Amino acid sequence: MLRYASMRIIGAIPTLLLVIVIAFLMVHAAPGGPFDAERVLPPDIERNITHAYHLDESLPQQFQRYLRGLLHGDLGPSYRYRDYSVSELIGKALPLSIWLGSLAMSVALLLGVAAGLLAALQKNTFFDRLLTGVAMIGISVPIFVVAPLLVLAFAVHLNWLPAGWSSSSGLSRYLLPVFALALPQIAYIARITRGGMIEAMSSDFVRTARAQGLGTVSIVRYHALKPAMLPLLSYMGPAIVGILTGSVVVEQIFGIPGLGRLFVLAALNRDYTLVLGIVILYAVLIILFNLLVDILYGLLDPRIRKR
Amino acid sequence: MSALTALQQLIGQVRGSRVVLISTGILLAIAVVALLGPLFSSHSYLATDLDRRLLAPTLQNGQLFGTDDLGRDLFVRTMMGAQVTLLVAVIASIVSLVIGVLYGATAGFIGGKLDALMMRAVDALYALPFIFLVILLMVVFERSFFLIFVAIGAINWLEMARIVRGQTLSLKEREFVDAARLIGVSSFGIIFRHITPNLLGMVVVYMTLTIPQAILVESFLSFLGLGIQEPQTSLGALVNGGVSQMEQAPWVLLIPAGLLAIVLLCFNFLGDGLRDLTDPRGEMQ
Q1: Crossing angle between the packed helical segments A2-28 and B112-126, to the nearest 10 degrees
Q2: Which of A129, A132, A144 to probe by mutation at the B interface, max B CB count within 10 Å?
């Protein structure tokens, strides 16, 4: 197991480096300098600015500097917010996004697994068909359509919940964003859980357990649940990507000052260093999460380790 | 089995599937209205009219969907948006299809070390968080149609390459490949003339599943303001515009959002239905 885990960890490093190199090169291949949009500066001042941002060094030198900074958690200065470093800006925005993301993920797991299990145990009944249909809608309709519709229904029309983040405080302002973020994941998780459970319930060991006279509850609890959950575990990687991209949209719609909103603002302002920093952070999060899932998978399913 | 009979078989099976027929019908209807609708309207998608801002949908004046915050006709704009969204998705899917099929067929046919190397490269790329790199691409370079095609195509070809390679591995053991080799057809000729046509049925099925993904990426980018730029529009860009008006004029949001949802839903039902028909056990995944 230790060998398997360390192989996985070593395998993740090239991916991470690849992302950093691609992202870094992309930003530096940008036509024109970061300050071109501003008024023409006297050559002396321009030289000073270029020097202050180390833009006068060669590309490998700049990359080396960036990588060294990265290892110390320093992502360089922001091009737009002159008084802040990228790390400071990210540090201010990140906690809120982590909160939102983990709340949404917990809600999605709870509701999705429950719905999927119920549907699987009542396969081909009305409830099952209804759930499969609703899940298809949840999977197909993108979050930037669902979230405004939720606002329109619950905030504008019914006036039950606040529409914006800043216009209220307390728990109620979490409800809509978290639910909007969780909704597509609930659909995916329900579908995967249903599939996994149906497969597990039709396997030989469940038939044997049934022949021994075990009730449905014990069969699910002691025999079917674990193998049924394995496909769900491998979905956790894509799920984190879904939550991250979803949070970009949700934070934009609700005006939540988190990482996703910072990312969009930085992208629209062409704040290269900030966008670069956030892309790398997202990549690190995704790769770490995938790594964790891989290792957990190896722990739960010994067959994987042998390969 | 020649390509033609494979396709005929698929069409024969489609006749029996209600889900596939209904979703194809709705999609075709949307495509036709999106293409022809603007021709029958007296409004242009560009003309602003500040006296007629945020008008509710009405039969008068032919403004079926009302107007937006600049007084532009929403019917024409929604149809233009649907055209752009469908066009981007179809072209991006064709890009990913061409790259994916050629790459996958080559790796699968040649096999050995080259295959291992090519598939390792796909695995490595697969682990990249592409959507964020695409956003970065949109930030850094001039936003153009061309870039959007390339960006979306670059994401989607990986899955296609994997599926095609798997299929090619089994196809190349078949007799007709031996026969072609016997009469002296080159490797390239075999891949191009004998393997690729046999992949057609499966590739068509898989493409109906990549199109909604391409639509999602395009509308996601446009929603954030990083995709299709004004005065051009797409369904995602229209939804973005609608969000800022939804309290006074909900239809500005509801109409493009509804259309986008229907298009995506139909493509997903179509793709799932076709996959179930050709591959009942879902082995392609």
Answers
A1: 70
A2: A144
